[in-house]
Amino acid sequence: MTVHSQGAATSAPQDAPQKSAGPAQTPPPTGATKAASTSPRGGRKSLPSGWLPYLLIGPAVLSMAILLLYPLVKNIILSFQKVDKIEFIQRKSPFNGVDNYTELLGDAQFWTVVVRSFLFTAANVLLIMVIGSLIGLLLNRLGKWMRLVLSMALVMAWAMPIVASVTVFQWLFDEQFGVMNWVMRTLGFAGYDQHNWFETGLSTMVIITVLVAWGSIPFVALNMYAGLTTVSGELYEAARMDGANGWQTFWKVVFPNLKSFFLVTTFLEVIWVFKAFTQIYAMNKGGPDRGSETLTIYAYVEGQSQGHYGLAAAISVLTIVMLVIVMSFYFRLILKQEEEQ
After folding, report:
1. What is the pTM of this model?
2. Mean of the per-residue pLDDT values for the chain?
């Protein structure tokens, strides 16, 4: 029994077990619990983690909507309006339904341009893929220094500005001082004294095809070489032991392992070639007599030169639709390839 000065008496049993010395475990106050549940910045709660990806891609989606989606919607609306030079000056845009599409689909010149565009695209993609793949195989077989020299040459050709390359080709095929006329005369061919290589639409398209292929082959060649470095050397050795020749080795070893590369690269080349504009317009502005126009040049000439803005918008919409239809087959092939893997 212990008596304090205040007169209060307390008792403590002498046989009570001794507790281990340590810090006292006291529950935190209610205010501290609330403070811990909030972020340190001004007491605001943090956003759920599921919102973070959307916040990161938000600026990109917004910029694409402003720069791509809005012009596309306006272009589609314009394709249903009659906007020629008079309407453009008067700032009027009356709707005329599907008259622009009806006029185009019934125009023989439009279908001529469509056929020319697809033939131009097919010829370019075929040349680019075949020659680019062959150069890629060559890069894989060359020694270190020769591979470096060829790779640098490909990169310089690839990096050359389009307008500069067009200027070079115009000089090569110049009527009076062109190198090609000199080469043909040197080889003994007659009729190449001041020969005009841009006299017809067909010859102009051939020159443009060479130009476009020349500028796109490096992309395929370098990517082909990069893909070949992933193919195991044991597969080549097994093919040689089985007696396979070069073509059989490519078809049985290289192509199956690089099938995705060929599909994706062909897909990209079709898009790039089909929408080619600068090379064609800078070379001869779609001439002579509009004989080298593709759909992109046709839409530009109808809109900017002829002043048929609604009709030009309809041409661009039909171009997009045709390209989507063509690309749908490649989408199916790519998806099927992914399912097989």
Report:
1. 0.78
2. 83
